[in-house]
Design a protein that fits this description.
Blueprint (H helix, E strand, L loop, with lengths): L18 H9 L2 H16 L2 H24 L19 H19 L9 H28 L5 H28 L4 H11 L1 H5 L14 H23 L1
Helix pairs in contact: 1-5, 2-3, 3-4, 3-6, 4-5, 4-6, 5-6, 6-7
Amino acid sequence: MTNRISLDLTHVQYDASSDTSFVLALLTLSPILLMPAYAALSVQTRELTIINMWAGQFLSEALNWILKHIVKEGRPKGSNTHLNGYGFPSSHSQNMGYFGAFLVCHMYFRHRFASCGYPLLDQAFRSTVYLAIVSWVALVAYSRLNLLYHTPHQVIWGLGIGISHGVVHYVLTELLPYTRPLSVFGWARAAILAHPVVVWMQIRDGWAIWADGGRETEWKRWKTAYDERTRVLQKRVN
């Protein structure tokens, strides 16, 4: 008879008597769900920044695997999670730390939302976005403790490594190429965008041109074309 085991990637054990534990069990799957989100956004937008962020997420996972096999620290004793592999550092915490750090850096240094006309409301909206990102990261990290998959120091180290990686990766691959386009970092990014395969795939660097990555410009083009189409249809009806 074939020996069957659980797929640890998506298998989550939680306290069936606790609604909080159930919600945390869903949240703890966030790092896994990020991957198809990256893929969909990369294909749809063809944005180099998103593809770069996705590549950094894979690097974070590779770094976590290396660290786990160097340290070889087990899971919490008595947790009864039946997980394979080592526990230090927490891969979920590290991946979410990277995700949150990269995204917050991008929102702070490069991305600008469309203004509603009231600076105070604009700032309040940006602050809300920052708070939502940080809260998401913190809740996923806490879920690893609550569900007994990791010890506190495994989670803290995972977050620290992920945040550090996210900041360094963003600065080297996004911020420096933008602020110092004539540096080796700017040259490397320009070389990537000029590569024939990248040109053929129509990959772009929207934030190098538009503060919002081109979202408003694309919407205005759509709105103009849509209004023109509507006028044509109304003439046919009349």
